[in-house]
Amino acid sequence: METSKPLLYQAIAWIFFGITVAILVSLHTTTMLIIPVTCVIACLWFVYRNRKNTIKCLLPFLSILSANLALFMYWHSEIVRNFANTRGIVRALTAKGASGEPSSNLFTRLFKAIWETVYLGNQVFFLNDNISIFNVVVSVIFFGISLYIVIKKYRGNKTLIGFFAITWIIFLYASSNYPDEHFYSHRKILLWFAPILLAIASLAYLNLTKTFHRILALVLAIIIGYSIATNLYFNQRYLASKYGSERLLSVADTVAIINQIPVGLTLCDPAKKGKRKEHGQYDYIDTFMTKRELKITNACPSGSYYIQPKFKMAIQMNDLFPIFTLVKTPPLDRPMTPLLETPETYLYKIE
What sections of 183-320 are H helices per DSSP? Predict the structure, then answer.
């Protein structure tokens, strides 16, 4: 936007800009709708600033061309499927949601946009098993201090920060239209880095020779440390569930225990239904790895074998960032004879 580099370098930058837009659009979250709008605004702003330079005004078309070339396979599939995905997006944008139309009250929508931003702290940066009022308050303090310092002190690249601000504002407007059901954190991916960037910019422009600025820096540092601690704690919980002494059943564990079942017999898998009826986990492992030609069924007849993992993952399906907790697997409600026990699982024979 503001470079004085030769035209060739600018052209290459615009091409990569288009490719980046294509990557973000292909994520199929809120970026699919927000990023194109933001990029059109950026292109129009660039053309306006360089309206007296015809060649420069053509540079944004390079980004449009490169973005569409990068999305060639997407557009090809859309054409083949008669633009089914595009029509689905249009329906999603125009149809009334399950909770009814969004409120037309300006203050209600403004509050919802602010709440979704603040609540992001409880969802991503200050993790908790449940909604925490304390974490919401910490988020308000963190966002408030960072935003205040950036507005008052920021002296960096105004075009860059303006681009981010437009993206966030458009997203907040979109979030104010969301229905009241769970607003999962991955739908706020465009806002994830806002607090980080604001905090970095805030710390960079504080004058630590002033007492008030030192207090602000200390508060930000404490909050950042708290965020790191909560995330490390839940990361440790997740890693322990995968690699600790009490852990989930891995593919290698499954292969080892399937190899203990005689060739050609029946393996009971109650989860073999719905989408897993044709492509269950044991079907895949036996077909491509163990090759013991087992008959895998959810009927669990007498004489069949049953693998019972000692633990399973309980994922809390709420609007917080996924919290993974190990719970003991309940036993199958059938008379069974234990045949083998490993640190991760039991092998039974159904009577």
Answer: 194-204, 211-243, 251-258, 281-285
